[in-house]
Amino acid sequence: MSKMRCDAAGPITLLICCLMLCGILFVTAGWFVPNTYSLNSSLPATVNEANIYRYERVESGKAVSTVIGMVCLLFADVGLLIMLVNVVTKCGCTQKHLPDHESNERVPVLPSPKQR
């Protein structure tokens, strides 16, 4: 089995996965958490005013959660793009394979047919 010199960036990959997971959770919370506060004509005005305040606080929290999630997803996408460019430029077509056995011997380089 041959080994390649292209190593994956472990901690960066873990960071990107965490950013994506947090982003998905925050956006999901922002979009799908219901806001159950509403006005009711049978309640006194002070209770309705408190419900309006709670409704606005929940909506503000949902908006902040969505924005935080979008920022996390944006950073994760930028990280994935950087990793993709890094892999393509460094490991694309110029992969260097190590010999199957680890030794200190030099592998002889044969001249090309044009040089013979």
In short:
Keywords: Membrane, Transmembrane, Transmembrane helix. By secondary structure, the protein is mainly alpha-helical. It is built from two helices and no strands.
Report on this structure:
- The chain crosses the membrane at residues 12-33, 63-88.
- Residues 96-116 are annotated as: Disordered.
- Keywords: Membrane, Transmembrane, Transmembrane helix.
- With 116 residues, the chain is mainly alpha-helical.
- It has one domain (10-91).
- Helices cover 60% and strands 0% of the residues.
- The model is unreliable at 1-6 (pLDDT under 50).
Main sheet specs? none
Cα-atom radius of gyration? 28 Å
Estimated structural class? mainly alpha
Low-confidence stretches: 1-6
| Intertermini distance | 32 Å
Silhouette: rod-shaped
Q: Any idea how many domains?
A: 1
Order of helices and strands: HH
Number of strands: 0
- Proportion of helical residues: 55-70%
Mean pLDDT: 79
| Number of H- or I-type helical stretches | 2
Strand content: under 5%
